Amino acid sequence: MKAGFVLGVSDGRVLVRRRKGEPCNQPVCGLDTLDVHLALGAISYDSRSTFVVIPRNLTANLYVSLVIQPVMLPFMNSIQRGVFQQDNALYHTAVVTQHALQSVDMLPWRARSPDLSPIEHVWKNIGRQLQRHPQPAITVPVFTDQVQQPWNSIPQTDIRNLYDTMHAHLHSCIQNSGGFTGY
User: What residues does the Tc1-like transposase DDE domain cover (predicted)?
Assistant: First the structure.
């Protein structure tokens, strides 16, 4: 459902590309602020939702008004026999969120359970594409554009494959006592 991405610098270090002998661009070298945003979206065997970019300091009320009502409820209503899954982030477990999702069939998320959600693979692939992008996203509009393109271009057959291999993924997780599965 979600992935966190850092706009600008990810770990406090600033990596600068420059030619040998070229002086460092001081304003760039002085950049030390982090702007973390979340990209949220949902997938199903036959479709995907639109995605939403939101600030990391999300409250339950904002989650309901920015994500659940305009994006997730319409998406879930479009799917026959759809089951919604989200982790136990505070804004997911809040009463206001649970109330907003009362009409949706939910898959419970156990504490300390391995994350087997197929969408994690989607976010991982999008993250790789963002890392390879020649221009780092330093503003929310640029970030949104840079996520929109790979989100829309993932073939639905790739998403179906994630669901089709779920049985093997679960089996591997059980065999490894919830540890690393290689998926």
Answer: 39-133
* Amino acid type, 76: M
CB contact at 8 A, 51 and 41: yes
Residue % of the chain over a pLDDT of 90: 42
Phi/psi at 6 (nearest 5 deg)? Answer: -100, 130
Domain positions in the chain: 2-7+33-169
Q: What share of the chain is helix, strand, coil (3-state, %, to 5)?
A: 45, 15, 45
Largest CA distance in the chain: 62
Q: Give Cα 14 distance to the centre of its chain.
A: 24
- Residue 108: the pLDDT is 84
pTM of the model: 0.77
Mean pLDDT of the chain: 83
**Are the CB atoms for 49 and 21 separated by under 8 Å?**
no
Average pLDDT of the residues in 109-129: 84
